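Example A, followed by Example B.
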Amino acid sequence: MTGDSPFEPLSTQTGPLVQLERYWRSLGRPQKLPARGEIDPNRIDDALPHAFILEKVAPGIGRMRVAGHALSAELGMEPRGMPISAFFLPEARGALRMWLNQLWSVPALVDLPVHSSRAIGRPRASGRLLLLPLADEAGETTRALGALVLDTPAGRTPRRLSIGPSETLRWEPAMRQSFSPRLVTEEDSVMAMAGPRPSREARPQLRVISGGV
């Protein structure tokens, strides 16, 4: 991990995500992830309503241990103890599993654009899901600090999300040095990525960009 990233998520609603990422980066040391026990809620007060702690229960599967009240409104129920896939449409869950696998196996920062369509009692929404790997008490990468921020308030009916568009997706190895993340574009060079791939319909042209390396 390096210092503060020059990249800031492209949304007027993602200030809490910027705060959360900067705090996570401030805890990192060379070749060592922040630990779950180091997280101080008082340092991320703006992000708390949208934030959660995720626990790995199997490859590509994460369960929420702690979650902010804004997430309860989006899901339409208490999210603690629920898999994070409960926030997503069935057709998006394959891609989500792939990114959760990257989160913990690399480990990597994952910043996904998300959206949901308009429906009765529910406005259209877009936003971002930020996932930041953490170490557990044994030093294994089995936890994550995350947040979900959307640009419209929750409606009368729960939302279920899709992933995309791919042009604003970020993926960054958490302990790689001299790495400058930037937006993904079709013109950028392609690097192969380890790990399973999502289905064709859920798999955009995924790119990992290493600026300055």
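Example B, a separate protein, is given below in the same form.
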Amino acid sequence: MGFTPALHAEWIKIRTLRSLVGALCAMLSATVVFSALSAFSAVSAGAGTATDGEDLDPLFSALFGVNLGQIAAMAFATTAVSSEFRGGALRLSLAAVPHRGVWFAAKLTAIALPVLTVGLATGLLTVALGSAVLGEKADGLSTADSLRGALGCAVYLTLMALLAAGLTTVLRSGTAALSILVPFLLIVSFVIGDMSGNAADLLPDRAGQVALHSAWQGLLGPWSGIAVTAAWTTTAVAAGAWQVRRRDA
């Protein structure tokens, strides 16, 4: 079986599993709702985002919910991959697609495309709603910044989903992958960021989220930050591909 039919088969698996469809819906809803709450908090506070007291960054205030939306994106990816390691599903998949590299590429593509699509819709909707909630506080937000933020949101969510997919393939467990990634993103990254200065800019979440800011300081800009996150993702995916090739199904 070639790549195209393999991709079609993987897409059927994804769209027929309710938990995966639910994770995509959760990615959109969590990002939109918590971003709106962040923007409302920024307006109520009079300055700063929902998390600090610095000058208002309207773009990040509008996209703050990505911090929670990325967890749904990673849950989507980990579930899609970990389902192959239960009940001998991987043996059946590899029986249909004997070339393991082709199967893994199809699996990752079937994960990336819906996350990218929903992520772009999420970014556009979130920026529009956040700007409306911010009102005059969003007057300094240009159309170019808004589009960059929406696109950055989509690409960032996709990269984090693929990073989770690669880690799940290495560990052969979605629970194990999430137990590493979620505490890291919600706790460890903030602690390291407060302690280590510019070195924290190279962490996958902090680097990628530079694209969600109107202005930025530090080592990276929006697209160089996305490139750093892409490097982390590439490493995880490469490790996953190596494990797929060397381990028994």
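On Example B: Residues 47-53 have pLDDT under 50 and may be disordered.
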